[in-house]
User: Fold these one by one.
Assistant:
Number 1:
Amino acid sequence: MKPYAFGVDIGGTTIKMGFFSSDGKFIDHWEIPTHTENNGEKVLPDIARSIKKKLKDNSITLDDLEGVGVGVPGPVLSDGVVNKCVNLGWGVVDVRKKLSSLLDGVYVEVGNDANVAALGEQWNGGGKGHDNVVMVTLGTGVGGGIILGGRILAGANGAAGEIGHMKVSDKETAVCGCGKKGCLEQYSSATGVVRLANLSLAANPSVETPLRDLDPITAKDVFDYAKTGDEFSLSIVDIVGKMLGEAIAHITCVVDPDVIVIGGGVSKAGQILLDAIEKHYRPAAFHASRDVDFKLAVLGNEAGMYGAVRMVLTD
Amino acid sequence: MKPYAFGVDIGGTTIKMGFFSSDGKFIDHWEIPTHTENNGEKVLPDIARSIKKKLKDNSITLDDLEGVGVGVPGPVLSDGVVNKCVNLGWGVVDVRKKLSSLLDGVYVEVGNDANVAALGEQWNGGGKGHDNVVMVTLGTGVGGGIILGGRILAGANGAAGEIGHMKVSDKETAVCGCGKKGCLEQYSSATGVVRLANLSLAANPSVETPLRDLDPITAKDVFDYAKTGDEFSLSIVDIVGKMLGEAIAHITCVVDPDVIVIGGGVSKAGQILLDAIEKHYRPAAFHASRDVDFKLAVLGNEAGMYGAVRMVLTD
């Protein structure tokens, strides 16, 4: 194996650039801005330029690179072609071919950002030591990644692990961003938690809770007050746990993984969140998968760079 | 590759023995009884003896065998160890090692029977031409198999594809065989369809339907009368389709397959069943997976032998 590799995590605002030794250790990491104008045509050239500069500064040539792994915020087919990245202004882009040609033929792998973050956590984070990992990312939305045998499951349409859009309620009247009603994301994302809290405050005007004095309420507030014992906040956390626990029980009936890793901003709530999920997961799960481990993600914003580079450093 | 292989499908009553050429064509197939007495200790020796006899009758030696694939009605771990087969009287049995030693070291692969049937359908049946197939088997119970990249997904506990025990209803009061309430199997297996019909007949005593004159009702009766336009039977088929369609929408959010294959006795109902499933699947599915194909299984009882032999004939 050649001595160096890059793991690149493309976001809508910044691109995280990770320069790694081929044993998977960071040598350096930095960020560059994401230029989305003109359908994001500068994104890949900017990445190539930044890589070449870093190599030049360290007196390394492209020949010393094992490869470049890239996570992108959109669906990725198994041939490395990205099918629409709204956040980057991209239509259909053959990222593997295009970036490789900008780097004189260097080996490039491409994955969806949520899947790539899951691979990072499986390799070097909350799922370390396990080959089969389901990661659930609770951020502004709910994303997911399925790692089987140490590899990303991309799916026929690049949509494997899109668990935020599992329908978990028949009763919802509000419409999810995807157009459906009752998606997991509507209850368990940061915005979903806040939505649940505001709906319940309005529906229960006589209930006293310190949340009522906040404007706006954040998901962190809900978990923080739940930790202090506020009954209202605890009731919201319980609904979040029920929706997640039952959805994860569906997931384990399908893939029966070694471990479930919970990440994203909402997961900073920590043990109280895991407890709420497990309370509802265990009775809903098929008995063979009932004792699956739940872990918190540990790599934070670096998971994407780790997972991206892992795609080109796979054993 | 050596010229011959066997695909063996172990059931609780009979063992289906398939003798194949290594291009995947049947040379012969037959059945032997399953002797479950004394914790099923004769099952593997009976299989070995039957294989040796067939080889001798055809003047073929064990050296000409590429391998023997075996489907068993219980959870199988990735190392070929079976963890309890209630129907065979087995506890923990290292099927791969034991059968291989009975056959002088021939290569043996082992899989769960539902997963193996799914592999058969993926290879040579309803899923032919696709690498990523979810099979849903509607028999006495509801089983499933997940084939990814042309291989069985077994799961950490041998429980991948156990989709019959996805919880699809919060309102159920009856207990499923697994101990939970509201499992898919309670609505979509042959027994589940009959249960739904009987419950609905009792709850709606004034509704007229030809089903009321039957004792007992079978799942086939429900579909047959639905095909004649009987409103009551159609309403039962619609519930079956809703439970299956929404559960399959969960599944495609996780693995995003190329095709869904519906098999088992209930699937003999044909297009009316697919129509009922798709009606509820499409609106519940994530948009990227919404247009997945639904196919009927085509191999029937031979799927297990095909899938079993495929495990030892994988490209």
Number 2:
Amino acid sequence: MREVAILGVGQTKFGELWDRSFREIGIEAGFAALQSSKLSSRDLSALYIGNMASGTYIDQEHVAPLVLDYSGLAGHHLPSVRVEAGGASGAVALHQGYLAVASGLYDFVVVGGAEKMTDVPEERGSAIASSAVDQEWETVFGATMPGLWALIAQRHMHEHGTKREDFAQMAVLDHEHAGKNPFAHYRNKISLDAVLSSTPVASPLGMLDCAPSSDGAAAVVLGPLERARKFTDTPIKISASQIATDTMAVMHRRDVTTLDATVLAAKRAFQRSGLEPSKIQLAEVHDSYSIGGLIALEDLGFFPKGKAGGALADGGLGLGGKLVLNPSGGLKAQGQPFGAVGIAQVAEIVRQLRGEAGDRQVSGATAGLAHNVGGTGATAVVTILERVN
Amino acid sequence: MREVAILGVGQTKFGELWDRSFREIGIEAGFAALQSSKLSSRDLSALYIGNMASGTYIDQEHVAPLVLDYSGLAGHHLPSVRVEAGGASGAVALHQGYLAVASGLYDFVVVGGAEKMTDVPEERGSAIASSAVDQEWETVFGATMPGLWALIAQRHMHEHGTKREDFAQMAVLDHEHAGKNPFAHYRNKISLDAVLSSTPVASPLGMLDCAPSSDGAAAVVLGPLERARKFTDTPIKISASQIATDTMAVMHRRDVTTLDATVLAAKRAFQRSGLEPSKIQLAEVHDSYSIGGLIALEDLGFFPKGKAGGALADGGLGLGGKLVLNPSGGLKAQGQPFGAVGIAQVAEIVRQLRGEAGDRQVSGATAGLAHNVGGTGATAVVTILERVN
């Protein structure tokens, strides 16, 4: 199969974008990605869209041709495909775009991710978010998304001695980084005390442990690596894109303090890329709940089981460290438009590897990893990106 | 890219399956496809699911890992991906499975399509169906799915002299064939008079011009053609799988009596396969509304514009003819579980090319075509399948 490169990235600001529609944010991100790549829309051969729940958030399915149409590209009659995998919809869509180019059937492909979440009442939003977990075996008994992550947190504390402060630190770090990211939903700093004393959601998780509902879109342009130099001076290679799955319900898992889907996706991705965790200088991990970010650090192989908490508490994962965690601000502070998250993570890594990340630049980064999760880990995707010299 | 073959197919009965859940029908179809292919679940490398609107029909997103999990395969941690493209979700999912195998990253892949439509009240069902067309430019003004197809029919009658009886004949033919298909939702014959005098839905379309809401699932197993003989004596080659798109809203189209997405997907598919319409002995076309089937015959190149009506009225498209249309009974009579339709069409062609279609066998068939549409034609997919000698 052909090697695949990312030629450009684009993104809207994440937040409560009440004055703009789904199609508008999709188009903004797509065109920004095209501009960043020096491709023209005439060069494109397909469009992929990652989106979790447009059918319920905006009463609209079939959103891939919708975005294509309102981009003014309907006349090209390009193939357009929507992909859904809960909060991992973005990275799973990226995987399909990657296969499309790798197969040789398509040359240049835009992969976008978009979600418009803030136009529904909050209770409705919670119900929609929970439709990514098992409705018949979890939600029906009252287990919501934060409730399930809280159970995971409790068990992690019990088994591995993790402290409440350890994962609270994840949110502090995210907000620190997001302050330097103009696309971020929340750019304010927060203190550890603020997280610890935030309104309880599901014990031990407080409001500031939970990523927000956000509107937003992000996009990347993919093409064959061998032709990438024509369109960018700094092509970024997709060294691996790997998906793994697990049971939908948390209770059916071997060990609820580990996401086996993450472990396996990471293992396959490191194997395919020929890299190992120590070669990664920055990682965007899926921290829809702060405990999820902590567990990801362990499951991805950056720290042994039970040791990520200490690493977070000690600091050292911020800018200037050996491994920089969530330079974008992560889901907690950059924001969490479900379908866009996985693409925004990759976009941030590309900006970093290109040296275009401004105040939050990780200096000299050559390899980064993105980790995107659907539900409570029924889907996990690991994408490894490298700068090509 | 590698050539891709279909190694097995499976399907549930289509209909009002009130005693069975989404996950149950998905599993039944998947296992039937595996059995028909002589593969074991251990041979699989990925699962794709085409599904339009599980988020609204059954309040459950993230259905690809759901089906994988309840198949007992969560322990394999296989990648699983849901694809959505309105009523074309099935064929678009098949396209992704095809790319997955063609790329070389995956070897054996199950592609399923499933929808559970009959557990919601009728009015709710209509609203969900209409979420595949442009909510902001069509539905908001009262244009429903049958309303839009009725406008298309009116214009086709006006411009091409098509008669009401011509497309009514499509429904008659479908029911005739479905009588021989044990999977079909409706197995009764209907007369031309019955269609013409059926309850008006949107003039000129009556109730019997409209495909039903159905529950159902279908699945196929894909693998590299070069390894296919190990798993089946009669591998069926995917000679082409092509997607094209168009504007979401009918009013924005060049010509509302033609689906340009169909024309282009067909042109690209015939080009890729090296075949032409005269070499196709059977076709499954997307007749969610009878007029859609008539227009497909023209847009696919089987008849010149304005001539398909006469061909339908004259008969000759039934079993024993040069081109057999919808041997399965089509969407009208086999049924229309949105996500499953495109896979069921392909499954029927595979059964026919393998000589396993029982009473409705098209004798000596070597090449068949499936045509799957999303919305009113914003997505169209053409798949060409050939028997390998």
Number 3:
Amino acid sequence: MTEVRRFSGTDIADFCHRTLMAAEMPSADARIVADLMADADVNGSDGHGVFRLPGYIRRIKEGGLNLTPNIRVEKEKSGMALVDGDNAQGHLVMRYCAELATKKAKDSGVAWVGSHASNHAGPAALYAKIPMAADMIGLYVAIGNANHLPPWGGTEMLLSTNPIAIAVPGMEEPAIVLDMATTVAAYGKVKTAAQRGEEMPEGWMIDRQGQPLTDPTKSEDGFLLPIGGPKGYGLALMFGLLAGTLNGAAFGKDVVDFNADFQTPTNTGQFIVAIDIAAFADVETFKRNIDNIYRTMKASPTLPGYDEVLLPGEQSHKKRQDREANGVPIHDGLLEALAKTAGDLGVEALG
Amino acid sequence: MTEVRRFSGTDIADFCHRTLMAAEMPSADARIVADLMADADVNGSDGHGVFRLPGYIRRIKEGGLNLTPNIRVEKEKSGMALVDGDNAQGHLVMRYCAELATKKAKDSGVAWVGSHASNHAGPAALYAKIPMAADMIGLYVAIGNANHLPPWGGTEMLLSTNPIAIAVPGMEEPAIVLDMATTVAAYGKVKTAAQRGEEMPEGWMIDRQGQPLTDPTKSEDGFLLPIGGPKGYGLALMFGLLAGTLNGAAFGKDVVDFNADFQTPTNTGQFIVAIDIAAFADVETFKRNIDNIYRTMKASPTLPGYDEVLLPGEQSHKKRQDREANGVPIHDGLLEALAKTAGDLGVEALG
């Protein structure tokens, strides 16, 4: 059994900030990245917060990331923009894109902003939620940074988990926030299971003979399964064409495995759509409708074996409440990895 | 075993046209609807073409459809429009919306057009494919016209199969066209299985105790299963908020079961996004990249038990080639239903 200690979001953010700065990321950029990383942890995205710091630092050290990027609009029309991320840390690129989409949608009603030359940006929901502050709906799709999914019926890993997040604000109830990989399990969950010494349930992965694979330390021997079989494959593929190919970003064979190669620019593709509720409807009426839908779903009677119906984002919302009050639980395997990363850079460890 | 006869797309379209006209739909509108219905059949969407004619005619006869609609833009900004379908046949509303989105995207790069007061429009792919003629990508989402899906873990059917279609054009290879319900099976497949006297595989539906339901004639005793369990539920819900609630269309408890109620306006919601490839990339380069991705996927080695990897839309493309050459197969159960509908209106039956 692994040990778990809890740390505040602020402590995690400050640890990420000083570690990124020690790796020579400029302080202001490191602040943005660190705060978004800690936010991921507070939201319950255990595979996408401080867990990723050792990999990010290694990429910086090996020269795979541009620490002085010029993130800029490359093409633009009223309803869209294409952003060159200039190989910056993905959090910086996607915060830029989400804010740009929000600003554009105030005029155009709906704005779609795609990126290339970006990098891993953490959990999808972080960015889908940004337009909500302006009473907008956010929709975000990303190309995953390693291929773990073959086309349906195939054995060549040509696709990633290509996640989607959609965030819709309510008035009094929590926002409804979907954040899902197009595979049954995200690869981050496989990695955290391996680090914690846990088995995977059947249905997450199969081996090259099509048999269930449940040992997460043997994940290299197989691949993830898409949701709904050919349907999840179809979604992963189409999301890849929209977030990758359309934006001039890597897709398919061109995807760089960021867990194995820390030097080649990943040319990650993502896109975000901001939808201004006011362009379609009265904002307060819309938000009250969302509250009503939230309550209607919660009030549904349940199947045998289920205690309650959950809304998308509800578990994350509950985790956030717990973690804001009691801190983010961090397993000792991760703490050790973080201490090593910190020690190598001569910065103070977490805790 | 049922008997099957084959009919040309033109014969099906002409049959739909004369039947809709006999039910007093104006000829020009009936032509548009009939051609789209036959196109659905030729594309292999057996549950969404002429199969739906008896239901459409019954709705017209019982006063549930507006035969002289004023389909119009209600709200508009450069990147979006909200269309009032005025309770017209859905095919008319969605062709209008798809053409409007395409026209707007020529200026804005990306345009999102939502609708309310629409109706069932046939298969999603029909509309996602329309922007391709202008070298655009199409993305279409609809609220299904009957709730067959509870929230995950619940038993109250508050959601429909809310499908998504995305169409991306290639240069020499067929377009890649995803068209999928967020449930394992679309309800149309349950209805066709019932009409053909076929069993359903396990995994399509469960009963109210959570046990597998395989008799399609007992579909009222259970509900459809979402793809990927809670993930498919999440997609169905979010697509419903975007296609329904945002547009002022019916969602959740407000959805009218169009298989049971032929009088109440359905207030169906749909949206389509047109994405102008030229705003992001060189069109020819992009299309050649899509061809390359198509070929790379096809070339993947296969798992034991699989002969080949299929691209989204490939089966439909093959069916289209077969049906254009050999006609659309129609089962005798459907032929009888169509003959009855035709007979009631005094028009010549199919075949």
Number 4:
Amino acid sequence: MTDTANDPSSLFCATSNRRQFVQRSLAGALAAGTVAVGVLGACAAPESAPKGATTGIAAKAAGTMDSDHAGGTMAPNPSTTAASAQSAADAMDAMHEAGIKAFPAKTTGKGGQLLAPRVENGVKIYELTASEIQWQTDPKITVKAWAYNGMVPGPEIRVKEGDRVRVVIKNELPESTAIHFHGLELPNAMDGVPFITQPPVKPGASFTYEFVVPNSGSHMYHSHHNAAKQVGMGLLGAFIVEPRAPRAIEKVDVDYVMVLNDGFLGYTLNGKGFPATEPIVAKRGQKVRIRFMNEGMMIHPMHLHGMHMTVIDKDGWPQPAPWKCDTLNIAPGERWDVIVNCTNPGTWAFHCHILPHAESDHGMYGMVTALIVSA
Amino acid sequence: MTDTANDPSSLFCATSNRRQFVQRSLAGALAAGTVAVGVLGACAAPESAPKGATTGIAAKAAGTMDSDHAGGTMAPNPSTTAASAQSAADAMDAMHEAGIKAFPAKTTGKGGQLLAPRVENGVKIYELTASEIQWQTDPKITVKAWAYNGMVPGPEIRVKEGDRVRVVIKNELPESTAIHFHGLELPNAMDGVPFITQPPVKPGASFTYEFVVPNSGSHMYHSHHNAAKQVGMGLLGAFIVEPRAPRAIEKVDVDYVMVLNDGFLGYTLNGKGFPATEPIVAKRGQKVRIRFMNEGMMIHPMHLHGMHMTVIDKDGWPQPAPWKCDTLNIAPGERWDVIVNCTNPGTWAFHCHILPHAESDHGMYGMVTALIVSA
Amino acid sequence: MTDTANDPSSLFCATSNRRQFVQRSLAGALAAGTVAVGVLGACAAPESAPKGATTGIAAKAAGTMDSDHAGGTMAPNPSTTAASAQSAADAMDAMHEAGIKAFPAKTTGKGGQLLAPRVENGVKIYELTASEIQWQTDPKITVKAWAYNGMVPGPEIRVKEGDRVRVVIKNELPESTAIHFHGLELPNAMDGVPFITQPPVKPGASFTYEFVVPNSGSHMYHSHHNAAKQVGMGLLGAFIVEPRAPRAIEKVDVDYVMVLNDGFLGYTLNGKGFPATEPIVAKRGQKVRIRFMNEGMMIHPMHLHGMHMTVIDKDGWPQPAPWKCDTLNIAPGERWDVIVNCTNPGTWAFHCHILPHAESDHGMYGMVTALIVSA
């Protein structure tokens, strides 16, 4: 296995006793602006590991160790472990493997699709319809959701600082609703809080918001009426405002929005739970911007393996100086923007570090995805 | 409705089919240093919205749109929505509206009232009595609480760096107690931890703390004996230490303490749940300092609508550089000081963004208040 | 009592009606690099407090008050409080006192012991065996745990940036496992995620990781297979990487690792709950570095009494500028490094400020320890 275990292009390892090459199609799972890479998974099973592997000699003998790289070797069970324990472990591992092999699993529906505006007299017009839908969060789970334009998160709205924007919400839900543009410093009448800034938008009615986009950054839109339920059910989306004068640090190859949630749809990233989450894909040397947004009720400390994240913005406002971390705690309502310099090739787990949000004895699930850096 | 929906002085909108002007008295709900403003709420009901409103034309026709402002328009239900759904939505909305109309609701008791010291030989003497009381957290809920001087939070102690202070605690509770001055770097004997720095203060007994105030900032005092219960029941208060040499950024018009809690008294801001919470009131152009203090057991990411917050201090210590956000995560025991430049007139929702701490299907409750910026 | 209550060397106060001097041995409870101090606890009971103490006169009369110090005085109960209430309070206080007097309580097993590597051809070799053990978290509680080398946390691995390291994991558990080096920017094959970067390490099998340590800082190693269970059961440890060129601020007298946890072993600091936690001990004027690591599922805002903490690193990366606090919120997967300048002598409570993690009506327990600064 040493020749493949050290191969940074290895994505997934099989437990079978022969090499497996797993070609995966990531088509359809790529964010706007990401690049497609072939994903090749291969590694040997423990049974085929050379004896003496615990000393690392086998790895070195195979010529795969140098000062920049490293080797992992597996030694077989030298003792007679109870067959029943082995069999229980094998059964658990098979479930874990099945989940990972299924990633990225196909599901019906994709959240956060970019919404192209209709432009009239220089006004960018976005039409949103709130309605009840069935939403598939992973291959095994379909739940009732409340959604904008039939997807969770709702469609991504992406505008420029200073744009004039009109957002029309049509309410096809059985409850009244309203939209709050979380983070935008709008005139009060556009703030979307029923009985404070506007009447509720009744079932069957529509409401039109219109404003000049005042401040750039990673913002959100969501219901602000019966919101613990309505946002929990899926009435939320990203509202990205690109600055007129981007900073040098903002020039990235991949711009990725990651909406965290933990409501009625379960632990999700962009409306899906692992293995139906979407990998983030980049080439070695590229820069990825991740816009974390928490629309849930719990903190989610997101941990990236293999590379650090450089935090640049909080709630759309630049931090006084960028700072580095590998685990970033994102609280409900917060947005944090980070840059990842993709220097380290491989498939890197990327998950909430509240482990019960990411793994059970049936395998990884929920708030897990991967950053895949091609060599 | 367009002429009122765009009026930044609109506070609350009614759903009735005629204009309603709601004059509210904020007397008694104003923090020290705040200014009183007339609060005028008016907006049209959906039924009176012009046809064609979804295009925003009506709004513009009314002359309320310009490059700096924005307009919202409501379109009626063009279809025949089931009457029962409408009626259920109306019933829910009525509950939501009633809560907001009641804000700021009168309750018995006001927490955190400034305590004037008795001065003897240059020593500022504060007398606190811990006792069991009945405390009204909102118009419908009165609970048993343990309180300093009959209020939750206990009275605000506000001193200057370098002051000599004496705090006398008289224990009228059925349990022993003690006071810890959370954040003050006191001599060990004044730290208030029974069996480590002092004996417990038995029921009926008193204890005197005396010290020179060593460090400025937003601090707290609370029980440190059986504290999960005693602090949860209400034995807590703000201990503000003004610096000898204030920084320029500290020169504000309104200095507001906001104590967050989630113990036996429910989700509260300064001991009250919405609609009995107190609005923060300022004039356009003024600066408001908010001193967040979490005395609870959960995080509370506080979200301000309409304007950002500039974070200046953590636990009474200046941050290396101020930074901006609209949602600030405040963990138990933490204090965060922020400045809001009140540039945006209107009534702005201000709430914990863990939505179940702020809203149910019966309407907003708990950790919700408003920042009201008069034009 | 005034002469002892103001004595910063006082550690614990007894409630008995005569002075008690309690000599405690901290041997065995000292971290590597800490210094031993004699701990002397003495204070008078309320019954012996002078009359009139509420005015602080007694304290001053005893000559213990000056501009830098402070005094605390206890006044007896002047009224006839119900004997039953007194007796209930006394009973509760006795439980609280017993817990504190027991601190630091002896238990079997010590977690996080420094693991000396075997060195072969310049490679530092660490051998870890994962197995099921019985682990005593406090004198009254022994639980089943999964541990590396029979301790929770697993042994501390401490290396230098650029070292070549080999870690051999032998799996004696009934489940497969794997080790993730959380925070290290390793080649993908060494990342320890079964089916993504390697096969699972089956019961009875071994696996060898080998790499050049790429980045300095406070990192962790833990299971990344069925991790919600395996990490929760104890498969975790500190992986400290000393930099080749330490910063001036890193030159400290005491370097202390504090692993926070809340899994199947309960609320623990370094695998123990109060009173079996370990005090941190330093001399006045010394600097202590604390490396917080959260291996649990909940946030833990750690509050230090008496002195502030200066935050220098997040996840092993320097913050752009150090900043001060007294309560630091540490989320799962995060590491935060702080410096404490031990300017304030005494025994200082140091605990999670989610109070139910630290105290019940039976007294302090769980995530509580003390920083002891000798005069």
